[in-house]
Write a structure and sequence with these properties.
Layout (H helix, E strand, L loop, with lengths): L1 H40 L2 E3 L9 H27 L4 H4 L11 H9 L3 H5 L6 H4 L1 E2 L4 E2 L13 H8 L5 H12 L16 E4 L2 E3 L1 H15 L2 H10 L5 E5 L5 H9 L4 E6 L1 H14 L6 E3 L12 E6 L3 H6 L4 E7 L7 H14 E11 L10 H5 L5 E4 L12 E6 L4 H4 L5 H13 L1
Parallel strand pairs: 6-7, 6-10, 7-9, 8-9, 10-11
Antiparallel strand pairs: 1-4, 2-3, 4-5, 11-13, 12-13
Helix pairs in contact: 2-12, 4-12, 8-9, 9-11
């Protein structure tokens, strides 16, 4: 009898807890829905007609980038063969292999069509999964071939006033210092709700999220202090997508030298986007081995992935290395190759910030299980500011103890909230 009673009690407790979790989820969704409606009902929208078009000078910059990228692609196979490099590491693999349809999109960008370059952001859903054209994030949305006609009229019908990222973005802005209240520029077809003069959409939030996580872990502050001391922070981002995170960080760290390593098919996006938005800085598309990779002063250096060994041979050391989402989409050999390189090129007080998903269930990788083999110190990053961390698990990796320098201590209640809200969404 006692045994049956214990079993019955466990069942009752289980179903009671389950009921309250469902009830909590319902009230959270209801509150969020009401708050989002209040925000969007009082907000204007930034359409394509509101965009700042490219100048002739900026269009020439874009054409020059396309010319360089076409050259990188034309020599890649021969270069890898002649150097005896492993194609499994230096050619696009896993989620970025040639059979994924990404090449067709790259060809459209490399055509240097002015209409497409002017609306570059409409073609960048491959990086974040969010379609500005369709106004939602979903697997299987077809990639664009051209800029759709009468898109503003369609967006007027499609815009989604209930996107949770709108609330998350606005909530974060209330808690951040002014210099961290960042937004994307109304250029290249960036569209979204206009809230306090800032364009808000899914991509704007996810890039702000990563900046906030690095800010709360005191990574950003240390780099700002370097700049105040008259030094140039050196940052490496492996797989920068179209350049959204790099744009935010460059706004915060204008004196930084920011190196982006990516496959040429992706590099064309970030190189066009950032070379135009920061055209007054010294930006370099590195192509030639044997030349000096070191570039003094602020600006961007764009480097094809098959030239990553040039970084390893150089004297460059990094204050910060970043990878978000793309490592788990690489092959295991590629992840190990980059981890070995990052470990050798981090400064003694440098850190590696990454935020990746475990996507083994769809045939890819859990990057963090591999990364931990290369770095003796690790800290998972939680947030006291963000209501929700939307994509992947954020971590900081280092060759030295990070806590001794930063004393990072997120409050337990915020850790719990992050975990619960992530489970709801």
């Amino acid at each position: 009898m006692n045994k049956k009673l214990k079993i019955n009690l466990r069942v009752v407790v289980f179903h009671t807890v389950r009921f309250f979790i469902k009830l909590y989820r319902f009230f959270i969704l209801l509150c969020i829905s009401k708050r989002i409606n209040r925000i969007t009902n009082n907000s204007k929208y930034c359409f394509l007609k509101d965009q700042e078009p490219l100048t002739e000078e900026e269009y020439e910059i874009a054409k020059n980038v396309c010319q360089h990228i076409r050259h990188m692609l034309s020599i890649r196979n021969d270069f890898i063969d002649k150097k005896g490099m492993d194609p499994e590491i230096h050619m696009p693999r896993a989620n970025w292999s040639a059979d994924k349809g990404f090449n067709r999109l790259t060809e459209r960008i490399l055509s240097s069509d002015k209409m497409i370059i002017n609306h570059l952001r409409l073609f960048s859903q491959i990086f974040t999964g969010y379609s500005l054209v369709w106004q939602y994030k979903k697997e299987g949305i077809p990639l664009l071939d051209d800029v759709p006609k009468d898109l503003d009229s369609d967006i007027l019908k499609r815009r989604n006033p209930k996107q949770k990222e709108i609330l998350l973005y606005c909530d974060a802005l209330k808690k951040l210092p002014e210099e961290l209240c960042l937004s994307l520029p109304n250029k290249f077809g960036e569209i979204g709700y206009l809230i306090n003069g800032k364009i808000v959409n899914f991509d704007a939030y996810v890039y702000l999220e990563r900046v906030v996580l690095m800010y709360e872990a005191n990574v950003i502050n240390e780099l700002i202090q370097l700049e105040k001391a008259g030094k140039t922070p050196v940052i490496l981002e492996i797989g920068a997508g179209y350049g959204g995170l790099a744009y935010f960080l460059k706004k915060l760290l204008p004196r930084s030298r920011y190196i982006i390593v990516d496959i040429p098919e992706s590099l064309v996006f970030s190189a066009i986007y950032l070379s135009i938005l920061f055209k007054d800085q010294k930006n370099v598309l590195f192509e030639n081995t044997g030349s000096d990779l070191t570039c003094e002063g602020p600006g961007f250096t764009f480097l094809s992935n098959y030239l990553f060994d040039e970084i390893l041979k150089s004297g460059i050391k990094f204050d910060l290395v970043i990878n978000t989402l793309s490592m788990s989409e690489m092959s295991e050999n590629q992840i190990r190759y980059y981890c070995e390189g990052i470990r050798s090129k981090l400064k003694d007080n440098g850190v590696f910030f990454e935020q990746n998903l475990d996507i083994r269930h769809i045939g890819f990788q859990n990057a963090q299980s591999i990364i931990r083999e290369y770095f003796p110190w690790h800290m998972r990053v939680f947030s006291n500011i963000l209501l929700l961390i939307t994509q992947g698990t954020p971590n900081i990796w280092s060759i030295n103890s990070y806590k001794k320098r930063y004393h990072y201590n997120p409050k337990f209640i915020f850790k719990l909230r992050n975990i619960i809200l992530n489970s709801i969404f």
